[in-house]
Design brief:
With about 475 residues, this protein is of the alpha/beta class. Helices cover about 40% and strands about 15% of the residues. The protein binds pyridoxal-5'-phosphate.
């Protein structure tokens, strides 16, 4: 390859060769995979010593721009991403200590195990791919330039109207589109609410056991988080510490226990919030999938004082990859929450929001929910039946009539069985994985990611492991 390198004067040739080669690689003039001339050849051409060229090559190799292959020559590294950082790990700017307590995010593409009982994921093979493709294409084909500019931080107006209608019909949540804020999944709600209501050092409370992300979001903002025990009726209101400003709860399907908060407990919690000037974040994350009975009224519907932020998600009904959810806030909080969304990341992607609004408006969303409810109900029934038949000696399923997971209490530590199961292709979690103070023994079985016909063989493998002494 003919590389043009300018050398003037008699000094600094090594640096000049290094800088010009580096610039050529970064600018893409020499592409990944291309070979550099042998050091002897380039030295001759530039009329410098071979050591000078070798030193420049060595530095570029050490910085990850070049790779030497024995007998073949020196090549530009295949992809810039493979270049190691020139700064070693250790020194440099350190994050706040709050971040040390936050575990690394889960690996995004962990290969699916043979039997996947992880909770919280829907059956993605049943995502309405064809309809979604049509809805997205229609938005793009229509040449709607307004979808390509900055959008409304509160969310696409059509989508907010559909969300208000949906929660009104399905959950009796009375709210106008003006109270809806579209979020990047349920997870963003806790962050936005904390931004507008809490200072570092303030106190918040979460259910224990509970869904970890809200606790971590609050902790990372410097908020002190109290884990509060949950009994058969829901969060133990009497155990919420004085001075708590925010309580995050999952009343319709406690995560991970699966219980529904009793009506008395809901009223007690609302009353507590009013007396303590606190906000309740009500996460109704998988409420669309209810298999028997009528759900109790959400806290939001029982609240007449503007204490509740209601949270919904499209992660369970459609896909977590959309990163679309919503909150419904008391009017007093909406403007600040919209500003917080604007300052955080401005808004959710417009085209996807518009596609979802159309999906809901044309009835496809409701049909998809009905279809998936049947699918999950069958899995829920099968899982419950097999647990009752084959695991009664050490597992007691907890009452649950909704959602995408089922939990079972145990008298014995289930950690060893979970670890053995994972080694043998069965992914599941211990109830203790979701505990902060108290780590209850028990198992959590998700049935969104496991096909119905995989449930019995998966549980048979688990039974065999338990019989081998892993329980
Ligand atoms: C309790 C709970 N809330 C919310 C979510 C969904 O979060 P997001 O909408 O951020 O995907 C999950 C998903 O697992 C969950 O288990």
């Amino acid at each position: 390859m003919e590389i043009h390198i300018d050398l003037t004067g008699t000094r600094g040739h090594r640096d000049a060769i290094y800088r010009q080669l580096r610039a050529a690689i970064l600018a893409g003039r020499i592409r990944p995979g291309e070979a550099l001339p042998p050091t002897r050849e380039l030295a001759q051409r530039l009329a410098v010593s071979r050591t000078t060229v070798s030193a420049a090559y060595d530095r570029l190799t050490a910085e990850g721009f070049l790779t030497g292959r024995v007998g073949a020559g020196t090549f530009v590294t295949a992809s810039p991403a493979e270049r190691p950082s020139p700064v070693p790990d250790g020194p440099g700017v350190r994050p706040l200590p709050e971040w040390d307590a936050v575990p690394p995010p889960p690996a995004p593409f962990a290969p699916a195990p043979e039997f996947d009982f992880r909770p919280g994921v829907p059956d993605l093979s049943r995502f309405p791919f064809d309809t979604w493709r049509r809805l997205i294409t229609q938005r793009l084909r229509a040449g709607q330039a307004d979808l390509m500019t900055y959008g409304d931080p509160q969310g696409h107006a059509g989508l907010r109207a559909e969300i208000a209608r949906h929660v009104g019909v399905s959950r009796d949540v009375r709210a106008s589109a003006a109270q809806v804020v579209v979020t990047a999944g349920a997870q963003q709600t806790t962050d936005l609410v904390a931004r507008v209501l809490l200072r570092s050092g303030d106190l918040a409370a979460v259910e224990d056991p509970g869904y970890p992300p809200p606790r971590l979001v609050l902790g990372a903002r410097g908020v002190r988080v109290a884990p509060v025990p949950v009994d058969a009726s829901g969060i133990v209101v009497g155990a919420i510490p004085a001075g708590t400003r925010l309580v995050y709860v999952t009343p319709s399907h406690q995560y991970p226990l699966g219980l529904s908060m009793s009506l008395d407990r809901r009223l007690e919690l609302l009353d507590w919030a009013e007396r303590n000037d606190a906000v309740l974040v009500e996460d109704d994350y998988d409420t669309e999938f209810r298999y028997t009975g009528r759900p109790l009224e959400p806290l939001h519907s029982l609240d007449s004082r503007g204490r509740v932020v209601y949270v919904g998600s499209f992660s369970k009904v459609l896909s977590p990859a959309l990163r679309l959810g919503f909150l419904i806030a008391p009017p007093s909080l909406v403007p600040a929450l919209v500003k917080a969304r604007y300052l955080t990341d401005w808004h959710a992607p417009n085209v996807e929001q518009a596609a979802l609004a159309a999906f809901m408006a044309e009835g496809g969303f409701a049909r998809h929910v009905r279809r998936m409810r049947k699918v999950y109900r069958a899995r829920h029934e099968l899982l419950s039946a097999v647990l009752a038949r084959d695991f009664a000696d050490f597992l007691t399923p907890l009452p649950s009539t909704a959602g995408l997971h089922l939990s079972a209490a145990s008298a014995a530590d289930t950690g060893p069985l979970v670890r053995a199961a994972r080694r043998h292709g069965v992914r599941l979690y211990s109830l203790g994985d979701f505990g902060v103070g108290e780590r209850r023994p028990g198992l959590v079985f998700g049935y969104g990611a496991v096909a119905a016909e995989r449930i019995e063989p998966g549980l048979a493998r688990l039974r065999a492991l338990a019989d081998e002494g892993a329980a």
